[in-house]
Amino acid sequence: MSELHKQILLLLSIPIYAILIPLELVLSHFRNWRFYSWKETAINVYLNLVNAAIDLLLRGLALFVLIFFYKYHAVNSWNPIAYWALLFFCEDVLFWLEHYIDHHSRLFWAVHVTHHSSEEYNLTTGFRSSVFMPFYRYLYFIPLALIGFRPIDILFMYALTQTYGILVHTQAIKSLPKWIEYIFVTPSHHRVHHASNIPYLDKNMGMVLIIWDRLFGTFVPEMPEEPVRYGLTKPLENPHHPVHIIFHEWKAIAGTLKRDIPFKDKFRYLFKAPGWSHDKSSQTAKEMQAEWNKEHKDK
What pLDDT is attached to residue 8? Predict the structure, then answer.
């Protein structure tokens, strides 16, 4: 990444590390908000460090793959403003797609679930990384290279939008002006995304723009009558174990695949939505929401 790119990211990230997180932590303590605990914060930092190490090791591979496909890119003459604006919009919608798949395929949910496993929600939750995502994340960006976006700019834009994504992990900001809430992902929208409440499951997938969720039917507002409960629908046993926190869903998948069931069902358990079962012994988020909607409609 160029020195200019690095300087921009550094200037944006310093306030998060040096000002916003300490400020939220202090306010949480003195106002008795209880947003932070030492164990959860330590796990958030630990997962971020593991992710960063893997990302560093694979960054060269990601860049190599994108450069390979960039060789075959469409010949385009870009206006600089149009270039960066279009890169932002294209990358943001591709993140929505990646995020949607992470929630609707158990194989990818096994990677992403660590980000949702905390029952706390604060700025450090944004660092609670899906540690194995660097193995495949860059594959979603291949179409951008084929269009004609430079690989180094693709990775820079992703880092830039991730910085924004960290900032919405807060309970300190309740709501923002309506026009902002309509266009952008806000803390309120992302609190919904991290909720274990049935009506909130698998909603609000966007990184920067909430318009994709509005367009594709995955948007739900934060509802006063449905206070957010953070974490998973089934809380983890031993949630602070450094290995279990990363591999618990992989272990559950392995147990499922050992069962005496047809191969096609094993395949479905791997790629269908989390909670899918051939014998209806468990439910997907959509199935739970259908029941929830029916019960509340009857009321």
Answer: 65
